[in-house]
Design a protein that fits this description.
Two copies of one chain form a homodimer. The first copy, chain A, has one domain: Hypothetical protein af1432, CATH 1.10.3210. The longest helix of chain A is centred in the C-terminal third of the chain and has 20 residues. Chain A is built from ten helices and two strands. Chain A is 65% helix and 4% strand. Chain A is globular and about 60 Å long. By secondary structure, chain A is mostly helical.
């Protein structure tokens, strides 16, 4: 198979991420967000909030990471962090399923790109490098902003408390973008007081 | 208003791009694509098809450009290229409406970012720099691939001929990515022969 055929096999398969639904809704609450448009929104977050990143973070790499970070969900679906099955840390079974999905989906690409994309996804998942830590912060903070915008959203659905928000979400946002979390936490906290 | 308040006013407004519908459907034909997920898919196209770009094209800039290229559609909507109102070149009225939308939407950002984003959007629209020419090629080729994947899609809807596809779409794809268009044209042409 030629290189372009492999690349388009991957790009056409990636299209399915637009049909993976997340718990979070759009800001107007009209429907659930899908993981494709969520990934776009996060890339825009990275461009706009670049000045919240630690010194040395490479925003172009963060954008690339965020563009592909959810592709494994084509096979595994999204596990909402506040759902009964959700946790702040993925289970062994979930991690194994996502690794198999990464094998299959990135494996559609020509070998050099498969390796590059897989490495970038693994770096995101490990959340140990400055780029990945910042990318994770954005991935965690965007649903918070969507919930604030639409009057509570999944917090009400899943009976989330302010303490759970801090332990499941806040720590990870603060790890990569402390000033950002200070600002968002204030808005979220005043919201919890009113419900 | 503080800087983060301005940045989130913009990011929350950008969320509305997920509700702007395009003529093109998903690869499985299940529904129309929206401009947010389309922008994500194009960023992935740029990452995957980087080796189709002319020497000197900065893929990171192309990705940034593609992430924000459709934001004006929040105010103006998408004008399908093969529709009765669509043309390969935007009308004066459409360009004026998009400029006003850019003023409003990018104007939500802090002034330094408003200027940067606006300049990148204008560069994309002008399609004169190597980065913008390549970005435009991807924006034009992705709907072709979606149509091929789902059995004709908007070509059948709008009675598009192979000649119209070449004049409205092919020239622009070929301008930034000639080898890519050679490959895609063959697949599209064989499809037109069967309908």
């Amino acid at each position: 198979m030629d290189r372009l055929a492999q690349q388009f096999a991957f790009l056409n398969e990636a299209d399915r991420l637009k049909s993976v639904l997340r718990a979070t809704t759009l800001c107007d609450g009209s429907r659930q967000e899908n993981s494709g448009e969520h990934s776009w929104h996060l890339a825009l977050y990275a461009m706009v909030l670049a000045d919240q990143a630690a010194p040395g973070v490479d925003i172009a790499r963060v954008v690339r990471m965020l563009i592909l970070h959810d592709l494994v969900e084509i096979d595994t679906g999204d596990v909402p962090i506040h759902s009964a099955n959700g946790t702040a840390h993925a289970s062994e079974a979930q991690m194994a399923a996502e690794a198999a999905a990464a094998d299959r989906i990135f494996g559609l690409l020509p070998p050099d790109q498969a390796q590059d994309f897989r490495a970038l996804w693994e770096e995101f998942e490990a959340a140990e490098t400055p780029d990945a830590i910042f990318a994770k912060s954005l991935d965690r903070v965007q649903p918070v902003m969507q919930n604030i915008a639409c009057g509570g959203g999944t917090w009400a659905t899943y009976n989330v408390t302010a303490e759970q928000l801090q332990s499941r979400v806040g720590h990870k946002v603060a790890r990569g973008a402390p000033a950002l979390w200070d600002w968002v936490r204030t808005r979220a906290a005043s919201f919890f007081e009113t419900i």
